[in-house]
């Protein structure tokens, strides 16, 4: 089955006819003879779409539509589309139903071709919204999405009409005067030109002179970069049932099958702009959630989740090009003492400063990632051993010679230890092995006195239990990390704060 549809009508013959037509199109059909029965059936069967008669024994079709809208608003997920069926001679009832929230209004006798095309369009839109809503809810649960803003700016509306006559032009001008949205009228020849303002809604209006030419633009608008996210509405001439059905199957979001009617256009326009903006917000939240999943929130650098597959792709490219690549694993020296003596805000400032210095002093092609804690990974394509060693030495020197400003105004120097591993073509080492080699070299740099660079190919293979990080045996000055006066531990400063005796001079 392609979907479950609830048919609500007090006349059994009408229900039977609709059931036969919908069943032949492979829809599952459930039925109700009144509004209250329909609401009860919704709780039991959870339909994907509702088709309701305009008049029911206990309420009108628009009252049922409003009740369904309230029900959908109280639970997660997209709203259930509602189509209201009216007699052909009740235009005021059509507008009332659209104002009550109906997604479309069909006139009796129902045109089967247009009805089935409309069902396909509404169900596609609902499925797409459901998928985006699910991802948005997941992101919101993880704290990765924001609540929508209450502010609603005017919409950008583009009406494409081919040689509109005086009557049609007068109706468009009347619509522009009453609308709060920004509306522009263009002819088909200029419709596909680049425009910096991407419209929220594009209205394709057939006129008595167009001969169906406007409809041919619909696939191009749907695939064009500037309009593929826009809502598309097609206004067909009366009795052009085939063109109307084709427009929905080609990607139109909404349809007016009886020509231009200003009041109805105003109602449909408002609904389509709101839906388009909801889709934009859900997509933006999803993009932001994906970005947050691979980005370190403090430094703005990529995290380990992103770095690992990137390094695998880098290794594959290096194998094909027969060019080496380098991995640098950098670790801040005595970072724990920064947090202990200056506070975690100072530690965050040190991490952010290091991230910025790495970004400013490495190539755009180099990947910089926060590997964890105070460790940072740099992946450098097309880099041999000499270039990697010189780059790592330059980064160490950069940190050692430039103090870091803390939030309270004090400045300290924090040094860097770096382990470097080189990946070469036809090597048995995998990217994970290479990261492990760089990590062993980093341990060696720590054990060798810090503020230094160690190449992985100079480190002797040791049992894992022998490779450990060591803390300074006792708090004492470290002349390697105190290139400026006053010397560590020799001055309490005018503010009474003692300079820590473990390698972070206050300037």
From TrEMBL:
Domain GGDEF: 323-458
Catalytic activity annotation: 2 GTP = 3',3'-c-di-GMP + 2 diphosphate
GO cellular component: plasma membrane
GO annotation terms (biological process): cell adhesion involved in single-species biofilm formation; negative regulation of bacterial-type flagellum-dependent cell motility; phosphorelay signal transduction system
EC code(s) of this entry: 2.7.7.65
Disordered as annotated region, ranges: 473-507
Enzyme class: transferase
A single MF term (Gene Ontology): diguanylate cyclase activity
Response regulatory domain: residues covered: 4-123
PROSITE patterns, sorted: GGDEF, RESPONSE_REGULATORY
Pfam family membership, one: GGDEF
InterPro entries per the UniProt record, alphabetical: CheY-like_superfamily (IPR011006), Diguanylate_Cyclase (IPR050469), GGDEF_dom (IPR000160), Nucleotide_cyclase (IPR029787), Rev_trsase/Diguanyl_cyclase (IPR043128), Sig_transdc_resp-reg_receiver (IPR001789)
PANTHER family the UniProt entry points to: DIGUANYLATE CYCLASE DGCM-RELATED, REGULATORY COMPONENTS OF SENSORY TRANSDUCTION SYSTEM
Protein name as annotated: diguanylate cyclase
Species whose genome carries this gene: Sagittula stellata (strain ATCC 700073 / DSM 11524 / E-37)
Lineage per the UniProt record: Bacteria, Pseudomonadati, Pseudomonadota, Alphaproteobacteria, Rhodobacterales
């Amino acid at each position: 089955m392609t979907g479950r549809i609830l048919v609500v009508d007090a006349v059994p013959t009408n229900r039977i006819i609709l059931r036969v037509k919908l069943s032949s199109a492979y829809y599952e059909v459930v039925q109700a003879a009144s509004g209250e029965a329909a609401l009860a059936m919704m709780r039991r069967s959870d339909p994907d779409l509702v088709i309701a008669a305009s008049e029911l024994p206990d309420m009108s079709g628009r009252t049922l539509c409003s009740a369904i809208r309230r029900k959908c608003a109280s639970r997660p997920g997209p709203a259930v589309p509602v189509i209201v069926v009216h007699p052909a001679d009740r235009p005021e009832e059509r507008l009332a139903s659209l104002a009550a929230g109906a997604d479309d209004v069909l006139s009796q006798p129902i045109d089967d071709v247009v009805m089935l095309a409309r069902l396909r369009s509404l169900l596609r839109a609902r499925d797409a919204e459901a998928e985006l809503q699910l991802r948005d809810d997941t992101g919101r649960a993880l704290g990765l999405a924001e609540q929508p803003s209450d502010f609603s700016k005017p919409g950008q509306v583009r009406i494409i009409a081919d040689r509109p006559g005086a009557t049609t032009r007068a109706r468009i001008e009347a619509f522009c005067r009453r609308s709060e949205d920004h509306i522009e009228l263009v002819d088909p020849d200029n419709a596909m030109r680049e425009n910096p303002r991407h419209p929220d809604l594009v209205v394709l209006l057939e006129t008595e002179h167009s001969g169906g030419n406007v409809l041919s633009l619909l696939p191009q608008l749907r695939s064009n970069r500037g309009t593929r996210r826009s809502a598309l509405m097609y206004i067909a001439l009366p009795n052009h049932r085939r063109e109307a059905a084709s427009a929905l199957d080609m990607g139109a979001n909404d349809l007016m099958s009886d020509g231009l009617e200003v009041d109805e256009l105003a109602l449909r326009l408002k609904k389509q702009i709101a839906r388009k903006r909801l889709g934009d917000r859900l997509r933006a939240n999803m993009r932001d959630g994906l970005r947050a999943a691979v980005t370190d929130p403090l430094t703005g650098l990529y995290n380990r989740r992103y770095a690992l597959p990137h390094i695998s792709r880098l290794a594959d490219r290096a194998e094909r090009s027969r060019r080496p690549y380098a991995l640098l694993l950098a670790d801040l020296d005595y970072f724990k003492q920064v947090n202990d003596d200056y506070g975690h805000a100072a530690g965050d400032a040190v991490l952010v400063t290091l991230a910025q210095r790495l970004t400013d002093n490495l190539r755009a092609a180099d990947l910089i990632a926060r590997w964890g804690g105070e460790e940072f990974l740099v992946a450098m394509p097309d880099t041999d051993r000499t270039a990697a060693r010189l780059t790592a030495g330059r980064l160490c020197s950069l940190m050692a010679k430039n103090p870091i400003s803390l939030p309270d105004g004090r400045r300290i120097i924090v040094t860097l230890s770096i382990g470097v591993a080189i990946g070469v073509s036809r090597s048995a080492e995998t990217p994970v092995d290479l990261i492990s080699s760089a990590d062993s070299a980093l341990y060696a740099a720590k054990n060798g006195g810090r503020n230094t660079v160690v190449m992985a190919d100079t480190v002797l293979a040791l049992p894992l239990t022998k490779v450990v990080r060591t803390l300074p045996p006792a708090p004492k000055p470290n002349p390697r990390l105190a290139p400026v006066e006053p010397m560590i531990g020799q001055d309490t400063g005018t503010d009474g704060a003692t300079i820590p005796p473990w390698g972070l001079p206050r300037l």
